[in-house]
């Protein structure tokens, strides 16, 4: 019930009651400066607290003409007037002093509403009060209390205007993701006479698209959706890039019931183009809307995964919003009144500029095209560490293995082991190191691929042919943590600030003799990512470590410091070893690649207790481009990863 007393209590009793009301409101977090005297302050604060909480029973109300209004009715009217903002009551603060003239008082109240998209609509509004015959102050209730332009029957409504989404830019400053034409394949149920036949023909056509759609189009529920839809409705089947649609247009255009609507979506140049790194831009999902109702509305474009997801707020910009009033007409229609209460224009998003080079990325994607196993190819510019390409397969893979895989490097890590050995003076390329079929360390047997043996040969030959047993024999010369130290000089294990998630490696150290032997050939507990190995390879080619660079704007705040220069004699020796892999060793598939000399190292990495289960690797460089190729469960690096590297480099040479 409203606060109203038929018998006027004593001044002491009234002060005690007002103090009790103030204490209750403070406990509820509703007060912003209540006064405990006989003035109207307590009534104002009670009203503001009740407006926020939805409970106005402690407040008395009267109409401008003087008739009483029930608190419950005011609560209902507040909800109705708030309209689309009713679920999020405003912040309310009394400003300045209350002015009193006779039995009428006026308070100034700041009303602040949080709007979708992050905007805030704030204004000051008067709240008038009248002192009744019982000496109690009551709020004069009218719609203008909420906003001076509101009238009875009005409700607040919102009109959202999405901002222009900015693009992810390549190294040349051109949008990678831009509006591109698509075709929406649709079906009118009432025009289809043979549903199974239609599904069969559509399925065959979609499977004929090259490169293959990933994931493939699932038509399993199409018959059910056609049956449940209105005969003259449109059932969406799939949205295709225009080039994919043109491949199969002759096969599907004349099928009964089919329709083809043209549209534009924010897309990369191809389906595969750096997909896992970039992420995607799609309409807001149910999860998006549930997690961020204040940010997204149905139909909004939202970044998912990769850079699009990580920098969604920057790319999306600020949604524009207009606050208007609506009213229900006598025939039940809701129509705008033409009154605008507030407007915040949309603010376009800011682009994200990367170091990605379109030609290099296309070559990397093409090199992985056709791979059925999970795979990655990452390329860096040696001179400045810029990430030129980050490809993942098969197809438009969603996981950025190029940056985040945590897998053993296999024999590609002999590059690091050799650097450590040469730095310590343990070997030179000419040092004779025996390469038997097997080597035993504390009861554990190590062998070479296909059980080959070379006998007593120069270390350069051991490296070129990737002799495991030679490196196992040399492992003690690295000491307990010599391998980790060598890896760190190449940037492994460092804290990189790249602007995207990346695994920089974990190098074995201080293990028992068997672990040291395994680590020397890239096994044991050592783990890397393709990006980490490409960066280490670039460090060898450059002569020192520089953290890879991916984002130019916004530039990462704390990139890892550059490493100290490697010993020139060690770099010269290691470069000769890696050139020998291509000219006379396991990387001979790249010997005739046109252009500057190719340096590299193959790798075949066991990932469980079965020696038959291996990942395929190749790392190397040509000219100013360093790269790493990884194929999960791919087998031998020389047979699987090296040909991919060859295809990549030939693609760059075009």
Automatic annotation (TrEMBL):
Pfam families: MecA_N (PF05223), PBP_dimer (PF03717), Transpeptidase (PF00905). The keyword Signal applies. InterPro entries: Beta-lactam/transpept, Beta-lactam/transpept-like, MecA_N, PBP_dimer, PBP_dimer_sf, PCN-bd_Tpept, TAT_signal. Residues 1-32 form the signal peptide. Residues 40-153 form the NTF2-like N-terminal transpeptidase domain. The keyword Ubl conjugation does not apply. Residues 161-325 form the Penicillin-binding protein dimerisation domain. PROSITE patterns: TAT. It comes from the Bacteria. Residues 328-350 are annotated as: Disordered. Residues 377-649 form the Penicillin-binding protein transpeptidase domain. Keywords: Membrane, Signal. It is found in: Membrane. Belongs to the transpeptidase family. This is Penicillin-binding protein.
